[in-house]
Amino acid sequence: MNMIVKKVVKKKQGLGGLRGSSGGSSVESSPLRPQLIEKPPPCTHGCPNHNMIREALMAVSKAEEFGKTLEAGLEEAWRRFLETTPLPAVCGRVCPHPCETECNRKEKDGAVSVNNFERFIGDFGLRKKLVPAKLTEARRSEKIAVVGSGPAGLSCAYHLARRGYPVTIFESFPKSGGMLRYGIPDYRLPPEVLDAEIQRILDMGVELKCNTAVGRDIPLETLRKDYKAVFVGLGAHQGKKLRVPGEDAPNVFAGTDFLHRINCDEKLDLGNKVVVIGGGDTAIDAARVSRRLGAETIILYRRTRAEMPAIHEEIEGAIEDGVRIDFLAAPIEVYTKDGRATGMKCQRMKLGEPDSSGRASPVPIEGDTYDLEFTTLIAAVSQQPDFTGFDALREGKDWIKTDAKFKTKEDGVYSGGDNVQLALVVHAIFHGRTAAAAIHEAITGEVPSAGAAPSGEPIRADKLKLSHYDEAKRSGVKKLPPAEALLSLKTEIASTLSEAEAVSDAKRCLSCGLCFHCGSCWSLCQDNAVIKPLVKGQPYKFKMEFCNGCKKCAENCPCGYIEMH
């Protein structure tokens, strides 16, 4: 949509005039002329998967103005998300929405509720049984194997299927979904939502083989021989130990193992008091599940709340559930009696200098300890993949290493997700998407042209005219009150936005860096140099021979799309 000015034509005297009046402009001519220059929006820049957030929001907010039905706008928004992610209904529930942290609207009256909007659009797509668009109807002959059906593997399979590749997913567990199914409680991510989005991928021609552990049941080398390329997305299902005496008791669980058992409907007797060690999402999930199982629950975290890596809303939710958090404390010994853990000695901590994570490092306060009793202990300090059968992809004790396209050191083998980097679901989706594009490029030589990170610096609030936009309240989801939420492990605690709420929040999008047809440039130009499109939604244009470079169009462009050069 960019218009590059090839030639500056000097304005002829007497042409144009103040709109609605006679007489020419009195502004002295300038050599500068307007250019339409699209800038990356900060939401897409801040999204690890670079979802087309601005475009999805504007598809809904401008649907009626551009002569479309609202349903057509909602479907267009869904297709914008499906260009980069196959799991909008899932991510709309579990993503900590770094896009909203970047949103310029927060400088006015609060960020656009992107995460809740994505959830609404994802649910809309499921309800309407929308089918993703393929990039080709041709069926390729090159078979691709995907190891693991977590978000990285599902993303890779989806983007390869869109390109016509026959894909087979190998999953070691009885059901697909990886950490999405076995590591996130049902009250946050209902299994029926996950199942529906996975089925949509399978319906594109992807084959799924569960109860098949590559590395044990099938050697990786066999896949390398039978398939043109292999993508490895193992997931980090193994919890790390505390490395303190007494932690091997049967009532001491790793966080990932505890959530896996719960999500498999295993009945666990936790007793009346649970202590959870850790400050990440697994720790928070384990604590909130324990409350739903009727136990008094305490989280022990060695730093302060400011350093907790868990999703802010989930921390708030845990506190509302009645979970107590002991900050600046760490276990140093687990007490046992008759073979079971009964309590532990805790060390008081203080914050020291930043460590490799950039957070302040916890330092023990010498001689300051206390005892804490419990009936069950859950250690959710970290997790790691099971690399059995994948040693060829590792370097020493390091996890799997890849290049920027997620290719490993082994020819034809790519990898992504938690076995490369413990991160968010949306990071894993990006890994799988990037690897799929790299696999296609390696086979065909075609360099992907879409879906890459936006080039250039994102446009910030200081380049916008925020006063142009009306104040508008951010839409928020409704949540079950804690007393009701604690009654069930299955009932979803947060609701999806209504259609009216989703549309209302879409209309709050500032369209940072791209024209949204407000008409300011046309209405303020005194020289008739701005051409309003006859078809709504088409770009505005300039008659450069009428323009004298007064800058009014650029200075009053709310979204920062017009520049003077």
In short:
With 565 residues, the protein is α/β, with parallel strands linked by helices.
Attribute tags:
19 strands; Fumarate Reductase Iron-sulfur Protein, Chain B, domain 2; FAD/NAD(P)-binding domain; 5-stranded parallel β-sheet; 18 helices; disordered N terminus; 565 residues; alpha/beta; 4 domains; Alpha-Beta Plaits
What does this protein look like?
By secondary structure, the chain is of the alpha/beta class. It has four domains: 1-38 and 514-565, 2-Layer Sandwich (Alpha-Beta Plaits); 43-133 and 464-512, Fumarate Reductase Iron-sulfur Protein, Chain B, domain 2, CATH 1.10.1060; 144-237 and 385-444, FAD/NAD(P)-binding domain; 243-259 and 268-378, FAD/NAD(P)-binding domain (3-Layer(bba) Sandwich). It contains 18 helices and 19 strands. The protein has a five-stranded parallel sheet with strand order 4-3-2-5-16, covered by helices on one side. The protein has a five-stranded parallel sheet with strand order 7-14-8-9-10. Helix 7 packs parallel to helix 14 and helix 11 (255-263) crosses helix 12 (281-292). Residues 1-25 have low confidence and may be disordered.
